Amino acid sequence: MKILRLLMIAAILAHVGSVQAQDIKPAEVKEVMQKVADWQIIHFKDTYSGRERAHHPLDWTNGAFYVGLVKWAEMADDDRYYNWMKNIGKEKDWELYKRMYHADDHTVGQMYVNLYRKYGDEEMIKPTTKQFDFMLYHQATTSMDWKSPFHQSRWNWCDALFMSPPVWAQLYNITGDEKYLDFMMKEFKATTDFLFDKKESLYYRDQRYMTQEDNGTKVFWSRGNGWVFAGLVNIMNELDPESKEYKYFLKLYKTMAERLLELQTPQGHWAMSLLGQEFYPTPETSGSSFYIYGFAWGINNGVLDKATYGPAVEKGWNAMVSYVNEEGMLGYVQPIGAAPGNASPDKTEVYGAGAFLSAGSEVFKLYGGK
What we know:
By secondary structure, the protein is an all-alpha fold. The chain has a single domain (2-366), classed as Glycosyltransferase (Alpha/alpha barrel). It is built from 14 helices and 4 strands. α10 (222-236) runs parallel beside α12 (285-300) and α12 (285-300) packs parallel to α14 (350-366). The longest helix is centred in the last third of the chain and has 20 residues, at 244-263. The protein is globular, with a radius of gyration of 19 Å.
């Protein structure tokens, strides 16, 4: 097994080494982003991860894709991507997905708010606002304990911090009503107090992993922490940089960024188990894309040092691009899960494309794109 791991690492190093020296050009960033976006839209109703059915259009998997697609739509030369997303909203009457309190089913709200910002049609956000108001006045009081009844009525798994809090921050931003901000802060802090390991500066995926080990290391799932890191950026984008709330998230973001920089592999990606590079040599592009997104955003917004974090962005982005095939499919996306697992060149998922598009949007700016 050890020899096999070494052979895999050597193969990946040889592959990635051929692209690491390439300069990043804004036009090429746009080109590969469009390629990935177009492929994903064409294959939107495909099945992935061994599933028998395609994901529902309002499922979190697609919601995460829309988060990145909105960023690409802002860069594209026409409105066809906006129109494609708008058609989904119209077909579904601008409703969130089926579960009232579950964070995953709120993800699509991020797309609705961004479409509202472009078109000014209040029908686009009316159902989301109504549902969030109901939750405000009927707040879940369940325990964060994973075994407690209805425990996912609150954000007791780290993925949730990407899915729901940015929508609360968006509603606060567009309405000016602090009730959305106050709720988001209260629940985000509760989740962080519960899942954040201060020694490692990383989040456990959920309570089940706090006492587990994987090959003698703590289990910190790459995509799980990627959800959090990207979620922090998406929240801060909605807040006044001078506010105490922004400064809370910025401190957390910088703490994670410093640790994540240490954990990037020589090949440019992050291992599926962040502390277990030796045991997970295969690239994983969804979590890695979120880290590149976060680093590039930090440099672009003057909160991370370019000399320190710029090389990580360059190495990481070139690695991610190398895993996009000729048709535009992003490979090495770990299937749906909650812990480190397997990824391969033929494995993809819609949320991986969303993460890639988010990363590209900031890499484009970093390298001079207008």
